[in-house]
């Protein structure tokens, strides 16, 4: 490997160990130049690199890498980007939720549950990103902040709705589950879509 840069800054290739691209990237993420940052784009030998399957970077041997260039983002940038794109992501979830409700009401419980499990995974990812963003940006963490209290109350109510949904799923009460998804969870997600832009303002 002849050249190595992070955000345009040249690094000594001898400082970074690794026999393949994955090992090199893992070592790079421990380097002072990437502290508090995540990788946005990777260029190997001048070409954009995208890992199409997990751990494909193991197959890219160091001896085949002439140049490696990384563009990174701060965690704050990631958080702000999430707050900006979150409403659109929620709209996608709401569309999926509408189809799940319809499938439950048509009586196709197996297909509906498969869709619903994927939906819950996506929602869990969203909520995890929200909590991480609040922490990284230091916004609405609590205390006497009225807006923080309002958001925390919202999150508590959403947790209650999700708890009810999981109970109904265990009971296999599909019709009632469809009602809760349509009239309670959809409303909660729309409220969150309205909250995120305000969070974004607080993050600046």
Low-confidence stretches: none
Distance between the termini: 39 Å
Percentage of residues in helical conformation: 55-70%
Q: How many β-strands, per DSSP?
A: 5
Kindly provide the radius of gyration, computed on alpha-carbon positions and rounded to a whole number of angstroms.
Answer: 22 Å
Strand order of the largest sheet: 2-1-5-3-4
The portion of residues forming beta strands comes to 5-15%
Shape: elongated
Order of helices and strands: EEHEEEHHHH
Profile the largest sheet: 5 strands, mixed
Number of helices: 5
Q: How many domains, in number, for the residues?
A: 2
Protein structure class: alpha+beta
Mean pLDDT: 87
Describe the structure.
The chain is α+β, with helices and mostly antiparallel strands and about 200 residues long. It has 2 domains: about 5-65, no CATH class; about 75-204. Helices cover about 60% and strands about 10% of the residues. The chain has 5 helices and 5 strands; from the N terminus they run ββαβββαααα. The chain has helices at about 20-30, 75-105, 110-135, 145-170, 175-204; strands spanning about 5, 10, 35-45, 45-50, 65-75. The chain has a 5-stranded mixed beta sheet with strand order 2-1-5-3-4. The two termini are about 40 Å apart. The model has no long low-confidence stretch (mean pLDDT about 85).
